[in-house]
């Protein structure tokens, strides 16, 4: 009997080719969304982890005002496993391009060559690859800076500049204006003799032995005191593993999208197969009467949807791991971060998700639904009992027959309509996930541009006694805050009185602070709440009472009275280390740690949008396609259930347009009206879980949509619906008047 029934599978596939094609397309798109997003993130995360042993990534680094003496170096080297000099100095051309000169590394933060070879003689250098790309350089070319010509022997990356920031305080990577050059140790010494006036950074990288970071820090403080300019551990170094940290958001979004897509699979497949059984109840009843067993029919009705789900999942998996999937998603990471090209990874759980979950889910859902439908008696199936949904009878005082019929049809198909609305809600969550990402990135970009009221921010290594004319002095210190398991930087800013650049007016208190609106939005702080921050330099915890909230959304910041802040952190009275200005100031470069301009902040905010663009496009476009497919499948089910009625009224001479009014208008009203509460509800669900996606990013979180964006969304839903409606009208046209004769009792 199974062999006999299996011959029917091809006929069924051919007869319902449109529905099966739509089902397969939905599965392909769903698997593609999840696997391409999560697969690209896993490639970066696992690739970064696998490179650690090859790169010999540092455990930390520290910078001194003056280098160690031989005795001091030997003393520190005896406390750690490995200690290596990573000294550097900057050369700058007339166009503002800065090249940071290093000597090649041996034991820590090794150079990884994309192509070419390490330098072996004077005048040769390897260059960081993204900077080389920005300048149009390749192996064999030359670059001249401040009168010195370097011949490029290789293109490289280094793990301690995974995120190519000029300083830890730089707002964004700018490969057009900043790059790295690595030369031989001998040539580095020669260049130092050529440019003795250039400030050299005396930075040492280390690998720990039995010591801890904290014990090493204390030893250095005892040995060098105030000459210890900075001490940065591996975990706190934002230049290291920046790419892996960035794609964590992608992975989280992808995994949540995966859960939503699984819900969608289960829902659509169950409705799809149950409808097919309802349509063929009389045939099933006849087969029961002829002695066919329930398990034979159960196997028959499960086979084709399961095979379609399997093929769709495999195709989706293949497309996701093709150049159209992971390669597209990961390219933005390669363009922004300085990383090697990682080998694509194929996580087992993603392969199982794409290849096995769709057919297994189809099998499980249909087993439950089909088993229930096939449990009826042969007589009830033969008579096609309850083939139409039952509904409570009541009187409608409507004089218009088309309107009365449309209402009755809607009530008759109320279960199908509710199933349609559930499908809309689930697909709206996928789309809202993508739109939220767009809104967040755009908001961060626009608000950073608006709230940065200064033109230049100068951070000093060695402050003068008085700030330069035209500048506003402040004391800036970096603290940290815990956010869902991540440690994020918070700038504590000490200002005097009313600032020209911030609307914060802090009180003269060491325990009260004004916070910026980003902190308030992310953590829900209100005036009177207590804020806990930690000083990473000594692990000391500070508690501040929120005395106000200012309208600045750039990163996370708290504002204190300068005098109170100096007292709190043990600094001299009226100490300052930063200057804000509304124009460029003439400050000697050797005094400065970094210079941040408004253009830098605007550019860094724009980079955030660019980095997330593939994720946004994938979620919104694929989610919209899935929405169209779900609409088609669900509305097609409603029309198929009404085939007998459509055939009958065609016998009475009703034209296609009149039939559309009777059978589709109610659905049109349902879809177009219910989108207004359903989309905001789906957005509310996504908003609730969205903070988990950006737990590793110190930024504001304004997810509200403008009225114009809502209008665009609702117009898009309307356009998609009417496009699907046009396809369904052709389906109505194919219903033959003779259909009523086939279903007579």
Describe the structure.
The chain is of the alpha+beta class. Helix content is 52%, strand content 17%. The protein contains 24 helices and 20 strands. The strands form 2 sheets. Strands 1, 2, 3, 4, 5, 6, 7, 8, 9, 10 and 11 form an 11-stranded mixed sheet that branches. A 9-stranded mixed sheet has the order 16-17-15-18-14-13-19-12-20. The longest helix has 44 residues, at 598-641. The protein is elongated.
DSSP E strands, number: 20
- Tell me the radius of gyration: 33 Å
Largest β sheet strand count, sense and barrel closure: 11 strands, mixed
Number of helices: 24
Measured between the Cα atoms of the first and last residue, the distance is 27 Å
| Mean model confidence by pLDDT | 85
The helix content is 40-55%
Beta-strand residue percentage: 15-25%
Structural class: alpha+beta
- Which regions have little confidence, pLDDT < 50, spanning 5+ residues? 386-391
- Name the quaternary structure: single chain
Which geometry do the CA atoms define? elongated
